[in-house]
Amino acid sequence: MKVLERIQVDYPNGNILIVTHSVMIKSLLSIFKDLPIVELWQPPFIHDTSLTIVELGENAPRIVIEGDISHKHL
User: CA-CA 20 to 30 A from 53: which of 8, 21, 38, 69?
Assistant: First the structure.
């Protein structure tokens, strides 16, 4: 949470790209969805190289895309 808060303070405008592994993406999504850690492994499965987009604003985070792998099928 502290890292997310720091990113928001340091970069209040524009887009931020975070590149990480599936488990970290699931962890971030659990924070954004306000889910307990025991639900971390619940679907959806987050594949390697997947794309997740989250918009952070003054209200609750909005998950725009979650675990998209359509680029793998080109």
Answer: 38
Q: How far is it, in rounded angstroms, from Cα 24 to Cα 2?
A: 14
Closest to 54 in 3D by CA, of 73, 70, 20: 20
The domain ranges of the chain are 2-73
pLDDT in tens, 1-13: 888 889 889 998 8
At 22, which amino acid appears?
Answer: S
pLDDT digits (tens, 9 = 90+) for 24-72: 999 999 999 999 999 999 998 999 899 999 998 778 889 999 999 999 8
| Euclidean distance between CA atoms 56 and 18, whole angstroms | 13
Reading the block at residue 16, the tokens are 């931020």
C-beta separation of 30 from 44 below 8 A: no
On whether the CB atoms of residues 67 and 56 are closer than 8 A, the answer is no
